[in-house]
Amino acid sequence: MSDQAASPGPATSPGPATAGAKEEERGPDGSFGRALRDAILEGNTVTVTILAIFTAFVVGGLLNAFTNRTVLHAWASLFSAPGHAIATAWDTAVGAYVEMFEGSVFNPHTVAALFQQASFSTAVHDGYLSAVFSPLSETAVQATPLILAGLAVALPYQAGLFNIGAQSQLIGGMIVATFLGYGVSMPFFVHVVVCVIGGFAGGAALGWLVGELKARTGAHEVIVTIMLNYIMAYFLTYLLSFGYLMQAPATSNQITSPIAGNAHLPLLFGSHLRINAGFLIALACAAGVWWLLNRTTIGFEFRSIGKNPSAARVAGMNVERNWVLVMLIAGGLAGLSGATVIQGTDFTLNFQSYGTYGIDAITVALLGLGRPFGVVLAGLLFGALHAGAPLMQAATGTPVDMVEVLQAVIVLFVAAPPLIRTMYRLRAARAGGVGGVMSKGWNA
To answer: Is pLDDT at 208 greater than 80 in this prediction?
Structure first.
C-alpha cells in the first residue's frame, strides 16, 4: 500500500521527456509559422510599414481616378451604368500604376521585341537588350542621390539630431565637385576621385558648421539647417550670375561650364544605360553607415547620445564632439549625393540640378525608419516612382505631379503607425490604444 502511495499516479503532470516529445511533435516549422503569424497580427515595424505603403497606393489610385474627367463623367451615370463607372475608375487607377511599373522595373513589350531578334548579337547591337534593362537603370539613377541624401538625414537621427539641411549640403557638394570638374585637368580615374572627395568635403563643411554651432552655442540644428538651405540657394544664384565666378563664358544663362569627360563617373553597363558608379557609391555608403553604427565605438556613442544625451555625458561620452562629428559625416554624405548628380547625369550645375533631393531625403529617411538598409529600400521605391512617372504621363495623361502626391500619402501613413494598426485591427492597436503611441513623438 505504501509503495502504491509513493509511486506517481497516472494523473500527474508530464515530465521533461513528455514535454520534449510534444515540442518535437510541433517541430520547428510550427514555431516559425506561429512566430510569423504573431509578427503579422501584432503589427511589428516591418508589417506596419508594408501595410502603410499598400494603403498609400490604394489611396493614391483613388485620388488619381477621381480627379480624372473621364472617370467623373462616367460616375455621373453611376446608377444607370454602374459597371461602366467602376470599370473606368479601375482602368484609370490601375493603368497608371502599370505604366509606372513598366517605366521603372519591367516592360513586357521590350522583352517581346528582344526575343523576336534573330540572334543575341543582333539584339545587343540594335539596343534591344539595353531597352529591357533601361527601366531598372533609370530607377537606380534616380535612387542614387536619394539614398545618399537619405543617409545624411538618417545618421544624425540616430544621434538625436534632425538634419533638415541636406539640401544646402547637397548644393555645397555640387559647387565643389563642379568647380573641380571643369576648373582643373587630371587623368581620368584621378579626376573622378578628386571630384567625389571634393563633393564630400563641400557638404561636410556645412555639416561641420551646423554641429559646431550646436555644440558651442546650443543653436538648434533644425533652425540652422533650414536657414542654410536658403543661404546656399542664394549663394548659388550669386555664383551663377557672374562670368568671373562660375557662370559659363559667352552666355547669359545661369549655368556652369560642363565638367571634363575625365570627371564623369564611369557607366556600369555601356553607353545605352545611364546607371553609373554613383549607384555603387550609394550602396557602399549605406553599408559603411551600418558598420559605423553597429560595429564601432563611435556608432555606439551616436546611438547612446540619441537615446539619452544626459546619461551618455555621465558615462563619459563627449556629447558635443559627437554632435560635430555626426553632422560632419552627414553633410559629407549629402555632398556625395550632389557629386553623383553632377558627375553621373547632369555634368553642369544650374538651378534644376539639385531639384527636391534634399527635401525628399527627409521622407526617404522617415520611410526607411532611420536605418541604412531601410533607406536603401525607400530610395529605390522613390527612385522607381520618379523613373516611371514620364511613361505614366505619356501613356495615360496622368501628370507627373501625382508622384509627389503619392510620396506624400506614403509618408503620411508611415508616420502614423497607430492609424494603420487601427485600420487593419492589429493587436497592438487594441492593446495599447492610438493616443498613447501618437504622443511619443519622433524619438519613440
So the answer is: yes
With residue 356 as reference, give the H or E element that holds it: none
pLDDT at position 227: 95
- Say whether both 83 and 147 belong to one domain: no
And the C-alpha cell for 140? 537606380
Q: Residue 23 falls within a domain, yes or no?
A: no
The CATH number of the domain holding residue 315 is 1.10.3470
> Distance from first CA to last CA of the chain, Å, rounded?
65
Tell me: the pLDDT tens digits for 252-304? 889 999 999 999 999 998 888 999 999 999 999 999 999 999 999 999 999 99
The DSSP symbol for 12 reads S
Question: Are 268 and 355 part of one and the same domain?
Answer: yes
Question: Does the reported pTM lie above 0.90?
Answer: no
pLDDT of residue 425: 83
- Owning domain of residue 422: 42-106+406-429
Do 197 and 100 fall within a single domain?
A: no
CB within 8 Å of 62: residues ≥ 6 apart? 93
Report angle CA 390, 267, 389 to the nearest 5 degrees.
10
Q: Which three cell numbers stand for residue 197?
A: 572627395
Query: Is there a contact between 179 and 338 (Cβ–Cβ < 8 Å)?
Result: no
- Examine the domain organization and report whether 329 and 234 are in the same domain: yes
- For residue 79 the three cell numbers come to 446608377
Lowest-confidence region among 118-132, 206-220, 334-348, 399-413: 118-132
Q: Find residue 267's DSSP bridge partners.
A: 276
Query: Is residue 92 included in any domain, yes or no?
Result: yes
**Closest among 349, 367, 334, 360 to 210, alpha carbons compared:** 334
Is residue 326 within 8 A of residue 161, CB to CB? The reply is yes
- Length of the chain measured in residues: 444
- The helix/strand/coil state of 267 is strand
* pLDDT above 90: percentage of residues in the chain: 53
pLDDT for position 31: 62
The crossing angle, in degrees rounded to 10, of helices 45-65 and 401-414 is 140
Q: CA torsion angle for 336, 337, 339, 342 (degrees, to 10)?
A: 180
255 shares its domain with 335: yes
The Cα–Cα gap between 61 and 90 comes to 9
Segment holding 394, helix H or strand E: helix 372-396
Tell me if 207 sits within 8 A of 169, measured CB to CB: yes
CA distance readout (Å), 129 to 120, 125, 142, 148, 272: 9, 9, 21, 29, 10
Largest CA distance in the chain: 115
Please tell me the distance from the alpha carbon of residue 331 to that of residue 323, in angstroms, as a whole number: 12
